[in-house]
Records
---
Amino acid sequence: QVQLVESGGGLVQAGGSLRLSCAASGTISSINGMGWFRQAPGKQRELVASIISTGSTNYADSVRGRFTISRDNAKNTVYLQMDSLKPEDTGVYYCNLRNVLQGLRTNDYWGQGTQVTVSS
């Protein structure tokens, strides 16, 4: 089992910055991906950014150039630095960890979510 604990959400004005953190504990595969998803009211959950254990990153087009994902493998922690925030970035942000197991099977784990609200 894996537990994910998120922190860092809050209320910020447009143009401001926030930094999200997510610490993972439990049985974590040496090959894994960690990422952030968000869900706005009435919308589906969408990928914001992800980073795999080698350090390769992926971003949604809407946040590329404004958000930066990073990870500390020694601490099993992933960060999301969010700059130049826009009202449309508002939503609940969920941390995800995907363990890659033998035979390329995967298991997904989710944090409880943290609210990010950007006021105009």
---
Amino acid sequence: QVQLVESGGGLVQTGGSLRLSCAASGSIFRLVAMGWYRQAPGQERELVAAVNAGGATTYADSVKGRFTISRDNAMNPVYLQMNNLKPEDTAVYYCNARGYSDYKNSFDSWGQGTQVTVGS
């Protein structure tokens, strides 16, 4: 079983910055990708940013140029630097990790979520 622990959420004013962190632990043989998703009230969960084992990154159009996902060489932990935050970035942010716990068993794990609130 893989556990994800997120930190770094909070309240910030428009234009401010926050840095989210996500650390994975447990039965991890190989990480394939880690990413951040968010869910605002009444809306579906959406991808914010992700990074794979090769270092390739993906961003939602709404955060390109403002958010940066990064990782260390072991791909764990993963960070999300959020700059120039806007009220529409307000949501619960969830960390996701996909990989293998051994040679044949895969996992797709989620963190508990961290609240990001951007005041206008």
